[in-house]
């Protein structure tokens, strides 16, 4: 262990893996913020922390099954002329889940809903459902990053675990302000839901070996964020001038 800590390559590897985990965890943070917004206000902070803790455990469990991860690309069966592996199956199911979840959330946001009509028992049940959704979707979001980490780090399991812990720490710090910002700005929430649908479509296509360069996905998302930032900026300036926007 001491020899590993004194190796500069190990620290470079830790920094690289941590960066990958943090960048790829942004999508997960957006989903967590959307998911916990369905809960009563007093339960949201605990749900965020608990959900991120569950996400951390699932990622570490994935790392500890390195031998199984190596066989993820072996075809289990053929569907529509395409060989489907465990990884493909996870991506397909995760993509469908995100498409359905995002579409339902958008429909509710556009049409409106009566949150006050929900009894306390339903709120308690929703808490378990939200945590389950976060745990499931984190497996989908983290699968590629874990496989990449396995390919880069090889036998350095402690380094991979440390990278996950660093990324989770950043998520814990960013989850609350991100969630509050999304809750306070309905247009940002709609944009985040559109991202979830986009990512769901991307995962679904990836599961069927239809590869779309991630640069296109992140480029379109970045452009959309830039437009939304300009909208929020213009809205803020209009409000300061006493005008409507």
Report how far apart the termini are. 59 Å
Largest sheet descriptor: 2 strands, antiparallel
Please state the CA-atom Rg, rounded to the nearest Å.
Answer: 20 Å
Helix content: over 70%
The gross shape turns out to be globular
Number of alpha- plus pi-helical segments: 9
Please list the strands of the largest sheet in the order they lie side by side. 1-2
Order of helices and strands: HHHHEEHHHHH
What are the segments in which pLDDT stays under 50 over at least 5 consecutive residues? 114-125
The beta-strand count equals 2
Give the secondary structure arrangement, pairings included.
Elements: H1 2-5, H2 8-36, H3 41-63, H4 66-70, E1 75-79, E2 82-85, H5 86-111, H6 120-153, H7 157-184, H8 186-207, H9 214-240
Antiparallel strand pairs: 1-2
Helix pairs in contact: 2-6, 2-7, 2-8, 3-6, 3-7, 5-6, 5-8, 7-8, 8-9
């Amino acid at each position: 262990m001491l020899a590993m800590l004194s190796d500069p390559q190990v620290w470079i590897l830790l920094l690289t893996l941590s960066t990958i985990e943090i960048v790829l965890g942004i999508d997960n943070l957006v989903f967590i913020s959307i998911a916990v917004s369905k809960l009563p206000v007093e339960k949201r902070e605990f749900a965020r922390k608990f959900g991120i803790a569950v996400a951390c455990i699932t990622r570490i469990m994935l790392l500890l099954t390195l031998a199984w991860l190596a066989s993820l690309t072996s075809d289990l069966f053929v569907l529509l002329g395409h060989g489907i592996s465990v990884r493909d199956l996870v991506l397909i199911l995760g993509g469908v889940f995100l498409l359905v979840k995002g579409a339902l959330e958008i429909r509710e946001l556009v049409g409106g809903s009566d949150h006050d009509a929900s009894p306390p028992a339903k709120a308690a049940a929703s808490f378990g459902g939200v945590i389950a959704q976060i745990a499931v979707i984190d497996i989908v979001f983290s699968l590629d990053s874990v496989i990449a980490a396995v390919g880069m780090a090889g036998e350095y399991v402690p380094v991979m675990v440390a990278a996950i812990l660093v990324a989770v720490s950043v998520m814990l710090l960013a989850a609350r302000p991100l969630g509050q910002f999304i809750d306070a700005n309905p247009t940002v929430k709609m944009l985040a839901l559109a991202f979830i649908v986009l990512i769901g479509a991307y995962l679904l296509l990836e599961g069927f070996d239809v590869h779309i360069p991630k640069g296109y996905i992140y480029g379109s998302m970045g452009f959309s964020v830039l437009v939304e930032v300009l909208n929020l900026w213009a809205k803020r300036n209009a409000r300061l001038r006493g005008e409507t926007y």
